[in-house]
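2024-03-11 09:14:02 DEBUG pipeline.ingest accepted 1 chain
2024-03-11 09:14:02 DEBUG pipeline.ingest length=72
2024-03-11 09:14:03 DEBUG pipeline.predict start
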Amino acid sequence: LYYSIEVPENLEALPLFTIKATDQDAGSSGEISYRIIAGDPSGDFRLDRKSGVLQTSRPLDREKRPGYTLTV
């Protein structure tokens, strides 16, 4: 899936989006965890492993980096 999110620059850390996935397996085989695997080498984003809440970890600056493509 592909999601596009516009984020205002120069704001303190804020929640942006909640990623939702499902797995039909039961028990621990059906547990889902989330992580950013590409696109954020500077650590500008945080992703809660359990809830899937994606948020900025610091104010973003469009002049320094005009866009991001994150792989979760």
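2024-03-11 09:14:41 DEBUG pipeline.report The chain has a mean pLDDT of 91.
2024-03-11 09:14:41 DEBUG pipeline.predict end
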